[in-house]
Amino acid sequence: MTTMTRALHLFNVRMADGQRVSVSVADDHIEALGPQAAAPAGTIVEDGGGALLLPGFVEGHTHIDKSNWGRPWYRNEVGPLLTDRISNEREWRRTSGHDAAAQSLALSRAFVQAGTTRLRTHVDVDTDARLRNLEGVLATRQTMRDVLDMQIVAFPQSGMLVRPGTVELFASALAEGADVLGALDPALIDGDPVASLNATFALAERSRKPIDIHLHEPGAVGAFTLKLLLDRVEALGMQGQVVVSHAFCLGALPERERDALLDRIAHLRVALLTSAPPSRTVPPLKICRDKGITMFGGNDGIRDTWSPYGVPDMLERAMLIGLRYDLRRDDDLALAFDCVSEAAARGCGFADYGLRVGARADLVLVDAQTVAHAVVARPKRRLVVANGRIVARDGELVDVA
Q1: In whole angstroms, what is the distance from residue 161 CA to residue 158 CA?
Q2: Residue 25 is part of which domain span?
Q3: Pair 113, 382: CB distance under 8 Å
Q4: Which residues form the Amidohydrolase domain (predicted)?
């Protein structure tokens, strides 16, 4: 990596409210943001051409270690069950020569090119691959460290308890550099939600790490697991340290039962993640927000053995969130964008985020009239600044490893 730009001045750019401003960047942070002003001496100057200024995007949930991005098309003939997909993926990764380091780097570069500057990725750890996938993504994080703030979740894609030795591997993964402890469907995958959640929370408590759990379990089963999880959050004082990803059950429960769970989720400051899939029930976005719950967005997998869909563009994910939740008004589409910006930074715990003085200088310029227009049109990124440094121009990476 080359030395980052030390000083940068963007002028003739517009805020979401239409105000024309200039932005002064010193080292890696926003030093000034306000009415048009002359550039400080010795500063690199960029004319924004009246473009819309947005904060760098946040990918709240993806799996960069397992992507097939940039490789030949994968012919998907996997069975319909979750266990079919897990077994198929494990075998494919074992026999195909899939390289988590190369693939995670390719996808990370594509994310940055499209304006993502913060990213949380789940990385498979199991008794077959052991820590190999984690080591590949750790190498990518090191390579991209100047331009992409990456959180790594150690994820038990094959289950925590059903494969003996997994808990010990996860302790090693957290010691080696994983930031967050993952979990997966304690009832339907591990077959014992009490024991599975006990093991997960005990490890989180020992390692002092937050938790991000995949909860695909439907209806009453999912609600039962969620209640057990919330009991442990409360008992261990882990308020504000847990994310429940997907939480499909919250879109299928009777209103009274759902709202009782949402009230507890809000009280315990548990955040919710949605990829807004069209084929599954989803937590109610506006009701969650009205209750004070942080709910944010992510792509989930991108071009992997699970699904051929997905692109590393958070404006497209915001659009898909808007479509799934029938968001049509401009102010509603601003909520969709919030799911991949402020709310995602808050849910993942990314610090110093946003368009404000003192925040890390992560900026995106797009030719759009409003935030809603940007979400719907998804224009080429005119300029991307990450950590105070220009990393993409006119949709192409510049000076990035």
Answers
A1: 9
A2: 7-55+355-397
A3: no
A4: 46-392
Q: In angstroms, rounded to a whole number, what is the distance separating the alpha carbons of residues 191 and 164?
A: 14
- Confidence tier at 24 by pLDDT (50, 70, 90): very high
Mean pLDDT of the chain: 95
366 and 340 within one domain:
no
- Residues near 97 by Cβ (< 8 Å), separated by ≥ 6? none
Helices (H) and strands (E) in the chain, counts: 12, 16
Whats the size of the chain, residue-wise? 401
φ and ψ at residue 268, rounded to 5 degrees: -90, 5
Which residues are within 8 A (CB) of 377 and not within 5 positions of it... i.e. 6 or more apart? 368
Residue 126: which of 94, 80, 84 has the closest Cα?
A: 94
**Rounded Cα gap, residues 385 and 26, in angstroms:** 12
Summarize pLDDT for 128-157 with one digit per residue, the tens. Answer: 889 999 999 999 999 999 999 999 999 999
- Asked if 230 and 365 sit in the same domain, the reply is no
Same domain, 33 and 63: no
| Residues 24, 75 within the same domain | no
Instruction: Decide if 176 is inside a domain.
Output: yes
Among all chains, which residue has been given the structure tokens 């849910």? Answer: 347
- Does the pLDDT at position 168 exceed 50? yes
| Residues 81 and 223 reside in one and the same domain | yes
Say if residue 179's pLDDT is above 60.
Answer: yes
Q: What percent of the chain has pLDDT over 90?
A: 88
Q: How many domains does the chain have?
A: 2
* pLDDT tens for each residue of 276-299: 999 999 999 999 999 999 999 999
Whether 2 is in a domain gets the answer no
* Tokens, residue 64: 């960069």
